[in-house]
Every structure is written in structure tokens, then in C-alpha cells.
Amino acid sequence: MAKKIILVLCLILFYSFNSTAFGEEIRIKLIEIKGNKRISASTIRSKIKMKDGDTFSPLLLKEDIKSLFQMGYFEDVKVDTEGFEGGIKIIFIVTEKQYIESVIFVGNDALTAEKLKEKITIKPNTIVDQQIIKDNVDKIKKYYEDEGYYYAAVIPVLKTTTADRISIIFYIEEGKKVKVTDVRFEGNKAYSSFKIRRTMKTKRHWIFSWLDSTGRYKKEEARNDIERIEELYANNGYIEVQVGEPRVEVSKDKKSIILIYPIIEGNRFKINKISIKGNTVFTEKELRKGLKIEEKAIFKRNLLREDIVAIVEKYGEKGYAFANVIPAIDPDKNTKLVNITLNVTEKDKVKVNRINIFGNDVTKDKVIRREIRVTEQEIINTKELKRSYQRLNNLNFFETIELLPRELPESMVDLDVRVKEKPTGAISFGAGYNSVDHVVGMVEISQGNVFGTGILAKAKGEFGKRKTNYTLSVKEPWLFDQPMSLGANLFKSDRSFDSYKKASIGGNTTLGRSFTEYISGSITYNLERVQILNMAATAPDTVKTDCDPHYAAISNIEYPYNSCKKKLTSSVGLGLSRDSRDNYLDPREGSTNSIYYEYALLMAAKTGSEAIRNSYLILS
Hints:
This protein is of the alpha+beta class. It contains 13 helices and 26 strands.
């Protein structure tokens, strides 16, 4: 086909040369499209640069043919020409690629077709592409490999069903499931095989492998273990360590394998000298302060990385957002000493031009902006940038968050905040059984981001034979767009016991205020009304005394009341807390501490007379 296109081009070029020699130009009178079925002629024409009335150009024709192939829809593109109305007609004849009608798996006994379809990218009603088919064969083989079928083979077969449609059939020979019975090492002296194995993801098969999926051979994971082993050595001075590709020894029945990693440990190096170059903003003494690597100590690559990050963050806190540190490591094999030079590139201080927010289809801009700790037209602080990410993440509104400084001229950046929202509403149901309430149930409806305002609202009900509880709560985390919060809770509870019933209703309201980034305070007012009903003579004395303080628990005196007066419990609470956790759900750094003091007052609901005062202090 390529020869035919070249021949056509050669003939046209020859004709063009001869016509030009006599001062004539070849004019394109008409461009025609043939052979297309699903792809419209207008779509094809949009990729052709030559137009009716243009002077013919062989080079442009070549580019047009290339453009049509690059569309990915055509198996072949031919070009025919013929004289037409004093010029030429160019005819593009295309052969469209076949479409995939179905994807079929044959021989997949261990893995279902549904699971295999989840792993591949080939879908029905898409065009056939040989490279994509090859890539999907690799995906299927890798999936089998991950499941322990090291010898699985996959052969794709294309079966024509109609003139323009095919079915792809993946014939699979699964083979036997292979388990890793041992992982061995050659040349390891500094570390025992046991210690090296602990750093690896590839594990030996054991009695409980069916629970934790260990003992499976995954080629990619086994290769990644090379880096993990090298990291173990490099973090203890062996900077020349070399770990080779693992050899695979297969058992005779092909059901198990042994992995053997060759290791050349090399020398163990100590640090001779640490130098810092390129620094003008900070003195060398300031940069050295807090370094974990030390002269005369064993070289540890992980500590060097941490020190580089610390120096970059130090610059970032002063506004040098694009500062960089590149280490130069110079080992001396004779002395087994290494010189380290930290080359600092400071660049200029950076100001934030604008903060742009993308991806918040529901959440309002201000809800995101109030959590960002950097300000437009001010020097950027990477520590505050990191804290901004933590605060946005702790909202629990977003699946992903990206804070991307985009460099601009004149030492400015635009901060692009890109978020991907996730559902913040939830409906939960629960049911259970116990010997007291028998069947119990629970339903809860919550929305953590009401109308994108950041307001939290929640309603919950619990039901059982002897109890019903209802709660309703709402919280505004930024009252009047200030670092103040206001929350309110209402509840109603009824609980039946063998000899009495307790009914309570109440609520509380809390006003909070943030004083610093991590410290906040709150004041809470609680009010609860409690009444004892349907009290039998067999009710506990503590309940009777609580109902009437003048009652004396004498067994031969009949208790005169069936129910108690309604009682109000009123209390005021003061709280102070410090919370520096980086992630509320999965903290890796920081802490939380709080102190709470509550003063309570108990009174009769009708008379309002004071009965009991009480106070308590909680530390956590």
C-alpha cells in the first residue's frame, strides 16, 4: 500500500514538474472522499489542509495522508487522481478499522470474566488497535501473575463477525499457581537474610498466606525489592551496594519457586566533611543547625534526604519557594570516607499574585479560601502552604487536593488550588438484637457541607422495645465569616425500665472561637428536663430518693408517688483545646489536648427552686 501511495505521488510530482516547466500550475478542482462508513466526510475533510481551488502541492498531500492516519480510525488510506475541468480531482479512499463487537475470555477457570474485564481497557464499540490489544494482553498476564499464576499465557484472536465488526477472544492457559517458598541472598555479610527480608514486599509462603496473600510471586514487586534492599544498605553507609536481578529457581512440579538476590555490598563509608555552597540568605552556621548528618558519623542516605528537605523548607518559610538543594557525594574508596557538598540554589523571593480555585462545583469559594493560610500579594510561606493543605484535607469534603504554585514573571506565582469533590452526605442504617430491648434499630442522616457552605447538619434516631432516642444537630464553623463557630443540639429520649420510665428532653448550644492556628476555646450552655414516670413500688431506692429527697428508704413504708415532678438540669461549660494534628482521621504528626470545666444547677421545673449545685473538671 505504501508503494502505491509513493507511486501516485511520484506520478503527480512528475506531472507537476512538467506542467511547471511550461509555466502551468495544477489546480485542485475537487476533493472527494470515498470508503467512509462511520466517519463523516466533513470530519475527514477537517484534517485535510488542501482545499478546492488551491494549487496542488505533493508535500501537502503527503502531510494530509499522514494526518488521516493519525486520526486512528483508518486501516488504510489511498489517493487517486484524475483530470477534471482543466485541473485535477483528488480522491481519498479510506478503509476504516473494524469495530469491536464483544470481548470474550476462554480458559479462565481461576478468574471470572467480570474480574478480567475490570483490568482491561478494551471495550465493545471501540475501534481495533493492535498496540492496545498487546497492552491488554500484558495487563491480563500481570493480573494472573499477581494472583500467583506465574506461567499464565494469553493469546488474542480476532474473529470477524460482520464486514466491519470483530470479536476479540483471549485464549488463556492459566497454568499452575506458583508460591514463593524461599527468598535467599548471596553476598550479604552486613545484614542477615532475616533483616533483609523484613524490608521487602515479596514474602515467603506460610500457613496463613491464604489470609494475607503473602507468598505470591509478582515480577514487578520482586524488582522493586531491589531498590528496597539497596535503600537498607545505603542508609547504613554502604553507598556502593549493588543488588542484581533475582534468579528464579523453579521446582520440578512448577508449583513453587525460590528467589535468589545477588548482593555486592561494597565498603561502608563515614562522612569526612560537609560543605554548603551557594547560600547567601542564611549563614552556613544557620543551615547546619539541626542537620541530622554529622561529620565522622556513618553516612546515611535517608538522613541526607531529610536534611535536604529541612533546608528547602527553611528557605520556603522565608518566601524562597523555588529554592533547591542538590547534594554532591564524593566517596574515597581508599579511606572509606565521603565528602558531601550541599549546593544551594536560592533564587528570588516569591509573592502570591492570585489564588485560583478549580473543581469546586458544590463548595463555595469562600469555604476553601478561609482555610488557605497564604495571602494574595504577600510573600509566600511554604510552611503555611503545607498547613493550608492540611486544613482543606481536614474538611473531609474533597477526594483529592492539589496546591500548585505556577511561576510568573517578576518573582510572582499564581497559586492554583485544584480539588475533586466527594459526597459529603450520608444515610446510615443499623440493626441489632439484645436480651433487654430485643430488636433495636438506628438510622442517621448527615450532611457535612450543606449547600456548599461548610455547615454540618445531622439527624439520628434509635429505636427499640424499651428505648427511643432522637437527636438533631447543626454547626456553623465560621460564624459571620469569622473564626468563630456556633453549634446547637436538640435531643429527646425515652427509656423504660422494669419498675419505671425515664423521659428526658433538652439541648445545648456552643459558641467557639479560634485564638491561634491550633488553640481554640468554647462556652457551652446545656439544658435538660427529666421526669420519672410509671414508677412502681419496686423501683430502686436511689430512684425514689432522687424523685423525693425527703423519702426515707424504709421497707415497710409504701412509696406514695407514681411519677416525679419535672426537673431541669442547667449547666455552663468552658473548654480550651489545642489540636495540631495534620490529619484528623489518620494523624501522623501533632497532638490534641483539652481542658473542660462544667458548672451544673439542678432545679424543680415548676418552682424553679435550686436543689443541687455541681461542678467538675475534665482534662484530656
